[in-house]
Amino acid sequence: MPCFRCGARQTDPARGASPWKRGVRADRQVLICPGCQGAHDWTAGLDRCAGCGSASLICRLGEVECRSCGHVREARPPERPGDLVTSGAPGLSEEVAAAIGRVLKRGPAG
Predict the structure, then answer these.
(1) Does residue 64 lie within any of the structural domains?
(2) Gap between the Cα atoms of 74 and 60, Å rounded
(3) Which CATH number does the domain housing residue 57 bear?
(4) pLDDT tens string for the chain (110 positions)?
(5) Does the pTM exceed 0.70?
(6) Nearest Cα to 87, choosing from 7, 30, 1?
(7) Residue in 86, 50, 92 with CA at minimum distance from that of residue 71
(8) Which structural domain, as residue segments, surrounds residue 47?
(9) What is the Cα–Cα distance from 53 to 33, expressed in whole angstroms?
(10) Going by fewer Cβ within 10 Å, which terminus of the chain is more open, N or C?
(11) Rounded CA gap, 29 and 42, in Å?
(12) How far apart are CA 31 and CA 43, in angstroms?
């Protein structure tokens, strides 16, 4: 899953806690990369808890839970099937095709 702000993809982390942050936007789990956390108010644009106003939310099994106060609510289904929060970055399949092309010294896939 890419960063919802810049589209950077998460790489295999070193040992220890991941520097990436989780959030919820439009009732879908999103990730925020370390670069965007430092360059922006990384909580802007994220959903907030109805109970305490915190942006420290997680989405799992059709529920959104606040990590600050414990408030839980049901996640709303997407309006259209396939709706996802995206940054407009290329999809993973396009990135994989481009990487394979580079490794095999081919032109763009198509």
Answers:
(1) yes
(2) 10
(3) 2.20.25
(4) 789 888 888 877 778 888 899 999 999 999 999 999 987 688 888 999 999 999 999 998 889 999 999 999 999 877 655 545 454 555 667 777 777 887 887 655 55
(5) no
(6) 7
(7) 50
(8) 21-83
(9) 22
(10) C
(11) 14
(12) 11
